[in-house]
Amino acid sequence: MARVAIIGMGNMGSKYAVMIAQGKVPGMQLVAATRIRTERYEEIKDILPADMKLYQSGELLLDGYDAKEIDIDTVLIVTPHYSHEALAVKAFERGLNVLCDKPAGVYSRQARNMMDAYFKAKTKNPRLLYGYIFHQRTFPVYRKMREIVQSGKYGNIKRVNWIVTDWYRPNAYYESGSWRATWAMDGGGTLLNQCPHNIDLLQWICGMPASVQGFCHEGKYHPIEVEDDVTAYFEWENGATGVFIASTGEAAGINRFEISLDNALLVCEKGNLRILELDKPESEYRKGHGDLFAKPVCSWREIAGEEAVEPYIILLKEFNEGKLVAEGAEAIKSLCITNAIYLSSWENRRVELPPQPSADELEFEKRFESWLARKSNQ
Ligand SMILES: NC(=O)c1ccc[n+]([C@@H]2O[C@H](COP(=O)([O-])OP(=O)(O)OC[C@H]3O[C@@H](n4cnc5c(N)ncnc54)[C@H](O)[C@@H]3O)[C@@H](O)[C@H]2O)c1
Q1: Tens digit of each residue's pLDDT (9 = 90 or more) over 125-144
Q2: In the 3-class helix/strand/coil scheme, how is the chain assigned residue by residue?
Q3: Is the pLDDT of residue 157 over 90?
Q4: What is the position in ligand 1's atom list of the atom closest to the CA of 87?
Q5: Rounded mean pLDDT, 204-215
Q6: Which residues line ligand 1 (CB under 6 A)?
Q7: Can you give the pLDDT at residue 377?
Q8: Which of 130, 169, 300, 336 could covalently link to 248 via disulfide, CB atoms 3.0 to 4.6 Å apart?
Q9: How far is the CA of 201 from the centre of ligand 1 (A)?
Q10: Domain ranges, ordered by start, for the chain
């Protein structure tokens, strides 16, 4: 039985608390949490365990653990992005399992620090867990796309195209928390807040791109200082190219994810997956056909999709069974991509994405920090 504390009881944290308290994650017990907004607390107080201990902050909760006020083995970190690193490191220093909500942080260095703290703690407890709430990885449709791409059945990726403009948000969303849509507390806009799921899926299904050129538009649709409209152009090592477009200001938006492979086109739209299959490999056709305007014969096939049922519960259950939907190391990848898109947009240049820590990662952080410092002095 995992004994869990939830740090950060806002929208998401209180949602997870209710799931656990209602017994939807067998074997997980909610032992402690941090303070909850009064109106939300009134709504859920009868569901939460009567003996659950409440603390004013994650830091105080972990101090409470040191003082043996609570007996926990796992923390769920569901706070604003800048605080993830310090809280996770503190939890690992105490030998606690960590399940953190996306993204890992604001800079890739934070995610690397968290990983280092995890590895250090793991030397004392090889069974220690560190995972991320990238719940969209449980969607059957994305699992299927990954399986098809990684099977190699249709050859290599040639092109990726993902338009995610169904993250629409009215101004009220941005006004709902003082940390939202601020560089200083949220750490970014559409890319860092809404899109970590998509960026994670993109690299999980298609592999890590080798470089990116980004174009971010800040406050285009909302009165916010961070971006609400993004276009990124990717290149992969094998020459494949890709475009990723996201916005919180477009309606009606769309979510259309296409992967063009050597011998098929995968199209995922609003959770439905179709495949356009070629009757024979395109390269064979190209080289061996005499007709100047001939095209391969293609036929559509629907891939029966299951509904994504209770993805958060699946993720929590799997975590409780020691199976991680997204391991800690995975969160570094999406953050590196996001950081690179920002840097590329600010410096109007292509940014490479090598597997090891790069000078551009530090450059991103330096620019970010100096921008924040200038702003706070204004
Ligand atoms: N996985 C998903 O589908 C999903 C969806 C939305 C948000 N998120 C992520 O969840 C996290 C929280 O987002 P949210 O929408 O719930 O935000 P929110 O503003 O509703 O909640 C954040 C909560 O954290 C609390 N908090 C801040 N610092 C704290 C600290 N040091 N100790 C304890 N509590 C602290 C705040 O008081 C607030 O209650 C973010 O990382 C966000 O990106 C994930």
Answers
A1: 999 999 999 999 999 999 99
A2: CEEEEEECECHHHHHHHHHHHCCCCCCEEEEEEECECHHHHHHHCCCCCCCCEEECCHHHHHHHHHCCCCCCCEEEECCCCCHHHHHHHHHHHCCCEEEEECCCCCCHHHHHHHHHHHHHHHHHCCCCCEEEECHHHHCHHHHHHHHHHHHCCCCCEEEEEEEECCCCCCHHHHHCCCCCCCCCCCCCCHHHHHCHHHHHHHHHHHCCCCEEEEEEEECCCCCCCCEEEEEEEEECCCCCEEEEEEECCCCCCCEEEEEEECCEEEEEECCEEEEEEECCCHHHHHHHCCCCCCCCCEEEEEECCCCCCCHHHHHHHHHHCCCCCCEHHHHHHHHHHHHHHHHHHHHCCCEECCCCCCHHHHHHHHHHHHHHHHHHHC
A3: yes
A4: 31
A5: 98
A6: 7-13, 34, 57-58, 78-81, 83, 101-102, 133, 135, 177, 193
A7: 73
A8: 169
A9: 21
A10: 2-135+312-327, 137-307+335-372
Q: Which amino acid residue places its CA nearest to atom 27 of ligand 1?
A: 79
Q: Which of 39, 79, 175 to mutate to test the pocket of ligand 1 (most atoms within 8 A of CB)?
A: 79
- Judge: domain 2-135+312-327, CATH 3.40.50.720: yes
Rounded to the nearest angstrom, the distance between the alpha carbon of 139 and the centre of ligand 1 is: 22
CATH architecture, domain defined by 137-307+335-372: 2-Layer Sandwich (3.30)
- pTM of whole model > 0.90? yes
CA of 81 to the centre of ligand 1 (A): 8
Which ligand 1 atom minimizes the distance to the CA of 15? 16
